[in-house]
Design the sequence.
């Protein structure tokens, strides 16, 4: 016999469910295609996201950007609970960001779309969906901690999307802030070469200003009576003093201070120019043509930094103290100067080239290509869909075609998002309202824009929208398969679940609607109905994620739900082969329809292998990514010499078979956990029908056949193993490792990292998720709140008999 390998089920679904080719096009280009004919308005758009480890000051930084750009009337404070971007009640109460928020500001004639993202590990999907539509990133660091656990995870996401970024060392006003620590941790933990653009200036231990190495200026902000910088909406700081000049131009500087700052500036500026010259031959040639290195024009430095930043060879590092209002204006300048415009990403160029049918009118609606990256249910406006425009333009009352759903939809209204406020883009602009952030003089948005629209009832996160003409041409043009579709957004697998109890039968329909809305808004939330217990099961990314969902149902929908105990989301697999044959006859419209199917299930890995867990881990990559893709069921059609089964099965029948296999793998035979690590072999598929069989009939019998085979293949449970990274001061290393040992952990490394300020350890371990309940509380207790940790799904490992018995007891509640 020979076996014909077929792609995983999800790949087959893509083949059958749509005729479009997927292009994952995120390779960055350092410059836009010379053939592009775009307006200066488009070139001045910046789509950037602020990302950070929790409590690094990301939201405070965003609030200052809104205020100094004139987009917000007051400066919100996290500890006051009055921030613009953290608008949810839970966010303001807890002082953390839970969901991504978007806002638009104007700065130096640039149009900046800012997306503020969560820093907590439970809301990593919000970061993922944000990065999928961004052109640049600002990674905020705590200057006293440098690169932290979540910073590393976020940086991996930024790298995966090939997004250029700059770093902002916040909280430089803290007594233990260390610029050296930030530089060292960027090199050691992120393996990147930072490009220091600024130096801190302190007077009597208080941060008062910044030395700008590009222009050779000392930027100073006057303090108020609370040692905070006076709030001033000037686009430049209160005082600018040129250190390149011998003349003291500031009445606030003594000659000794002037010389001290000047010497420091000259040394670091020379280092900056030398480093740039090592990477940029054009700048190196320019430097060699000058009498001295400091004669380099700042404009040439900005060009070089921008080029190397877009090529992701160097990462600019800026400094400041957002809470004390220092460094925000230079940071905004850097966003405009160094981060890419929309057409400086390869994604945009490819989509532009494929969808622009009329290059003389690049912003025509016929060239539309947009990605839906967020769904939001607004109390007043209803269902809103966030879109990123990659090609063409969008107008109100416009028909669009959803490539993923293969359906037509209509854009009713277009809004400019500003946190939880939405300003409608209409044919005229109200100059008396602060709708000055609305750039358009008509109701059209174009390449690079990020907007929210109403009217899309079927579109979900990750869908690609194009002009309705694409659907009309689909029937006539055989080359439509070459049209690119955006890669969409990868949804992570949930690791926790719990039951959700409705307070009364009368509230059940209302609860179903609430869960439907929440799941559309947050695809990392999974909702299932347990067939055995008749309970609603919700699955999420962590304890806080589940807690927030419960709280939102209570507050936003008025349903006082209760949750059962939090449980680990296990997986099921099999330990031996089993072949099952099933036959079924069905009478349809008086005609007999007979079907016979024979399938065999086999484990991917032999459980007799003593290194089983290591093999399973190697099936995933080092970062624990793409686990869903790696664990998909492989289906093979088995052909014999005398019988070619592949040619016998029609495409629509094969699609129905795959659907049945997929359905069977969703709920395992033990405890209805998803099944992983199984191969399916199709040996026989026969039909004897006087009328065509329906696809649901084929799907149903396939599912029954596979499920019966799984039951007889000695199924076992597998537990999720988390990759845990802990950053802790040296003195707590012993207690932490002792605690991890009790939790059945496998210690991988305990790297020593030191600086002039602190000495710390970076502990890496693999720990069963079931051992990590309330671990944040335990770690905080052990280290007095001085350690941080991050965890991500690494692999699945089979349970032994004793562990399985404990799980059964936990799930069933029976000893």
Sequence:
């Amino acid at each position: 016999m020979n076996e014909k390998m077929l792609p995983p089920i999800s790949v087959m679904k893509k083949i059958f469910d749509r005729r479009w080719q997927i292009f994952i096009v995120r390779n960055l280009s350092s410059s836009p295609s010379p053939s592009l004919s775009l307006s200066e308005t488009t070139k001045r758009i910046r789509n950037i996201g602020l990302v950070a480890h929790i409590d690094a000051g990301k939201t405070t930084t965003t609030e200052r950007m809104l205020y100094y750009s004139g987009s917000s009337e007051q400066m919100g404070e996290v500890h006051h609970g009055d921030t613009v971007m953290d608008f949810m009640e839970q966010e303001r109460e807890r002082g953390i960001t839970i969901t991504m928020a978007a806002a638009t500001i104007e700065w130096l004639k640039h149009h900046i779309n800012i997306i503020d993202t969560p820093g907590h590990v439970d809301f990593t999907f919000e970061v993922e969906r944000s990065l999928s539509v961004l052109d640049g990133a600002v990674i905020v660091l705590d200057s006293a901690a440098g690169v932290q656990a979540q910073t590393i995870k976020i940086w991996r996401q930024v790298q995966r999307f090939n997004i250029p970024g700059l770093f902002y060392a916040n909280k430089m006003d803290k007594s233990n802030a260390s610029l050296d620590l930030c530089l060292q941790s960027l090199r050691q933990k992120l393996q990147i070469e930072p490009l220091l653009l600024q130096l801190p200036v302190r007077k009597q231990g208080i941060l008062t200003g910044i030395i700008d190495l590009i222009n050779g200026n000392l930027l100073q902000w006057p303090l108020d009576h609370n040692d905070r910088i006076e709030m001033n909406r000037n686009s430049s700081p209160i005082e600018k003093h040129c250190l390149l000049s011998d003349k003291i131009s500031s009445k606030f500087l003594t000659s000794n201070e002037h010389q001290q700052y000047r010497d420091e500036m000259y040394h670091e500026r020379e280092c900056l120019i030398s480093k740039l010259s090592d990477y940029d031959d054009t700048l190196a040639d320019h430097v060699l043509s000058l009498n001295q290195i400091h004669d380099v024009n700042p404009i040439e430095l900005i060009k070089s930094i921008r080029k190397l930043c877009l090529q992701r060879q160097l990462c600019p590092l800026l400094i400041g103290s957002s809470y004390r209002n220092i460094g925000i204006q230079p940071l905004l300048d850097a966003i405009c100067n160094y981060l890419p415009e929309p057409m400086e990403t390869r994604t945009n160029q490819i989509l532009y080239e494929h969808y622009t049918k009329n290059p003389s009118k690049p912003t025509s609606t016929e060239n539309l290509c947009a990605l839906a990256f967020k769904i939001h249910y607004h109390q007043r406006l209803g269902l809103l869909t966030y879109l990123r425009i990659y090609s063409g333009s969008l107008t109100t009352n416009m028909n669009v075609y959803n490539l993923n759903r293969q359906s037509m939809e209509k854009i009713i209204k277009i809004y400019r998002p500003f946190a939880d406020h939405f300003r409608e883009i209409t044919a005229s602009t109200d100059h008396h309202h602060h709708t000055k952030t609305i750039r358009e003089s008509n109701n059209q948005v174009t390449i690079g824009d990020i907007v929210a629209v109403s009217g899309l009832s079927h579109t979900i996160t990750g869908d690609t929208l194009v002009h309705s003409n694409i659907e009309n041409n689909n029937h006539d043009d055989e080359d439509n398969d070459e049209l690119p579709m955006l890669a969409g957004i990868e949804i992570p697998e949930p690791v926790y679940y719990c039951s959700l109890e409705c307070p009364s039968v009368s509230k059940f329909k209302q609860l179903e609607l609430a869960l439907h809305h929440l799941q559309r808004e947050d695809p990392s939330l999974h909702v299932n109905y347990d067939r055995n217990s008749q309970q609603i099961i919700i699955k999420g990314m962590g304890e806080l994620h589940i807690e927030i969902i419960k709280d939102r149902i209570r507050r936003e929908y008025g349903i006082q739900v209760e949750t059962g105990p939090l449980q680990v989301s296990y997986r099921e697999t099999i330990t031996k082969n089993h072949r099952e044959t099933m036959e079924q006859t069905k009478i349809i419209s008086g005609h007999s329809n007979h079907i016979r199917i024979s399938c065999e299930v086999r484990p991917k890995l032999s459980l007799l292998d003593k290194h089983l867990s290591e093999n399973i881990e190697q099936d995933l990559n080092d970062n624990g990514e793409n686990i869903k893709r790696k664990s998909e069921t492989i289906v093979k059609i088995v052909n014999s010499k005398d019988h070619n089964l592949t040619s016998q099965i029609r495409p629509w029948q094969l699609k129905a078979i795959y659907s049945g296999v997929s359905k069977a793998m969703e709920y395992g035979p033990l405890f209805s956990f998803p099944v992983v690590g199984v191969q399916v072999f199709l040996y026989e598929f026969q039909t004897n029908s006087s009328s065509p069989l329906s696809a649901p009939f084929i799907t149903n019998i396939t599912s029954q056949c596979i499920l019966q085979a799984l039951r007889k293949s000695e199924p076992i449970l597998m537990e999720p193993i988390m990759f845990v990274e802990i950053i802790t001061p040296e003195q707590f290393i012993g207690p932490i490792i002792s605690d991890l040992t009790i939790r059945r952990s496998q210690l991988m490394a305990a790297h020593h990292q030191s600086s002039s300020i602190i000495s710390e350890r970076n502990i890496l371990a693999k720990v069963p998720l079931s051992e990590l309940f309330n671990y944040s509380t335990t770690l905080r207790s052990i280290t007095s709140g001085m350690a941080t940790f991050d965890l991500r799904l690494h692999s699945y490992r089979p349970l032994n008999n004793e562990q399985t018995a404990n799980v059964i007891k936990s799930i069933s509640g029976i000893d």
User: Anything to note?
Assistant: The radius of gyration is 29 Å. The chain has five domains: 2-11+573-713, 43-242+313-344, 360-484, 496-568, 718-810.
